[in-house]
Design brief:
The chain is an alpha/beta fold. It contains 10 helices and 9 strands. The strands form 2 sheets. Strands 7-6-5-8-9 form a 5-stranded parallel β-sheet, sandwiched between helices. Strand 2, helix 2 and strand 3 form a beta-alpha-beta unit. Helix 5 crosses helix 9. The longest helix has 23 residues. The radius of gyration is 21 Å and the shape is globular.
């Protein structure tokens, strides 16, 4: 009897916490003046405490599409929300990397009549989620559709475009027939965070590459990884056939997530520019293989479905660890 009551109380508590969360993170309607009376602005303002750059991008993309479906004007505000860039940038971090989806900016909102501040959640509604499940074969249509939406609404700004182009030209030059490989390590392989997609081991990835050599007839391998141990293993296996960018890489880390790492001499801005460059190069490759991560989705969205061949490991998710 006591056990049953305990279960009932726990369910009530969980339900209360859930609805309390929905209420605290709900959309908010504001009016700051009488300007733009025929427009409803949708301010995308979300706390991204633990998210990397492309996890942020795909979340914002889901909110952009939600706003468009509602006939709102989306404006992205990362200046007044929590994210890993706030300490280094006084400007709106989104505008450091990208353009706003339309010609409107936060300045246009200051005296506007109709304003909606987005819910403080990764996706506005479940149907707008851009999750790693899209990398499963039965979701190809949805993935391709998001690639079209990405191409239309996510615009890299001129400074970032120049950085990406310079990096691309220094690595790829005139090379063709390139297999792009995304191989995550560090916080994924070492920490195996519960509920996150299981990543293939580098040995598994290398075995797959060798098996694809005859059928795809690629000449080069471009490796995107943040793990120095994986890079060294690939260098040993593929030698001069391997391409990669010069970036800060890690071995085993003590923190739970890579975004928590203290970069010391290397800023998070530089790290994320290099990360974006690596995804950009992946998106230009002829073929793509990788584990299910936000970065893999990023490379696919940026490519606009132009790969001749793709393969994504679907290995389930890391289990929750039993606490003794």
């Amino acid at each position: 009897m006591v056990k049953n009551l305990s279960i009932i109380f726990q369910k009530i508590k969980n339900r209360f916490q859930y609805y309390s969360y929905l209420y605290k993170t709900r959309e908010k309607h504001l009016s700051l003046g009488n300007e733009n009376p025929n427009i409803t602005f949708y301010i995308i303002k979300i706390d991204f405490r633990m998210a990397g750059l492309f996890a942020i991008v795909k979340s914002i993309l889901s909110h952009i599409q939600y706003a468009i479906d509602k006939e709102y004007i989306p404006i992205i505000d990362m200046k007044n929300s929590q994210n890993c860039f706030n300490e280094e940038l006084s400007e709106n971090p989104w505008e450091f990397f990208f353009k706003q989806p339309t010609h409107y900016t936060l300045e246009d909102v200051k005296k506007s009549k109709n304003i909606i501040v987005s819910c403080n959640r990764q996706v506005p509604q479940l149907q707008y989620a851009i999750g790693v499940s899209l990398l499963q074969n039965n979701n190809q249509y949805k993935l391709d559709n998001w690639a079209k939406i990405y191409k239309e609404h996510i615009k890299i700004n001129d400074n970032t475009k120049k950085y990406l182009s310079t990096t691309y030209n220094s690595i790829i030059e005139n090379r063709k027939n390139i297999l792009g490989v995304l191989c995550r390590g560090t916080d994924y392989l070492d920490k195996q965070p519960a509920g996150h997609p299981i990543q293939p081991t580098p040995e598994t990835v290398i075995k797959k590459i060798l098996s694809l050599k005859e059928t795809l007839n690629f000449e080069w391998i471009y490796l995107a990884t943040e793990d120095i141990r994986i890079l060294d293993l690939f260098k040993k296996q593929f030698g001069n056939q391997l391409l990669y960018i010069n970036q800060l890489r890690f071995g085993q880390i003590e923190c739970e997530y890579l975004c928590d790492y203290n970069y010391k001499e290397n800023s998070k801005i530089k790290m994320n520019l290099d990360y974006l460059s690596s995804l950009y190069i992946l998106s230009k490759c002829d073929f793509l293989i990788g584990g299910r991560t936000a970065g893999t989705i990023g490379a696919y969205l940026m490519s606009a479905n132009k790969f001749k061949y793709t393969f994504f490991w679907d290995l389930g998710t890391y289990p929750h660890k039993n606490i003794k």
